[in-house]
Amino acid sequence: MVYITIVGSGNVxxxxxxxxxNARIPINQILSSSTxxxxxxxxxxxxxxxxxxxxxxxxxVLLCIKDDSLKKSYLEKFKGNYLLCHTAGSVSIEVFGDRxxxxxxxxxxxxxxxxxxxxxxxxxxxxxxxxxDLSILKILAKNISKDVRVINSEQRLQIHLAAVFVSNFANHxxxxxxxxxxxxxxxxxxxxxxxxxSARKIQILSPEKAQTGPALRKDKNVISKHLKLLDKxxxxxxxxxxxxxxxxxxxxx
Length: 253
Fold this sequence. Notes:
Layout: E1 4-7, H1 11-22, E2 27-31, H2 35-43, E3 47-49, E4 60-63, H3 72-75, E5 83-86, E6 102-107, E7 124-128, H4 131-142, E8 148-150, H5 153-182, H6 192-201, H7 207-210, H8 214-217, H9 220-229, H10 234-250
Parallel strand pairs: 1-2, 1-4, 2-3, 4-5, 5-6, 7-8
Antiparallel strand pairs: 6-7
């Protein structure tokens, strides 16, 4: 019998709870003092606890909390005989100090509390301080995903950096595009087929081969027109220039 304790009640916590329930793995405990934590415990028929001292020995404990909360002073409160793991992309396993039963259970995906997502194809990056615990994490991860990988902390940080570019930065550019369209009362929906095709294309072509647009063509006339349209939005204009120059430099040969 696997005992799972989830620490936290945010997006990652809720989505992992759903993934485990779909795999018929019960969530034994939720450690949280918030209203959302109590609701999470109710939704998944879990025991709500308020202290690390209440965690069941032998559990797999998943810390689904903000990266900057993973501090030595906080982690030292977890002293029991259980496998303590965090789910962060940018925090090294070294944060656990000399704790022997420690690991990483990092799902590489953008997760929102109110959006259902199929974990089957989400890469889950694992790391542990010993082979026995790594095997335990592999078994758990394979219950919810077909893509389970052993990734060290240095690699995981590099992956997290790359993920920020393709997900967080890309979404911010969508927001800028939406703001630009609103000025002329145009719905963002008009761009959705383009966004979908760009995402599909990258499944077949490398990013280098998939690149198109005025910067690739070095079309200074079009670039100048666009920059003029952005005269009232200096931040957008700056971003446009930086990305265009980066594309031009990348393909200048």
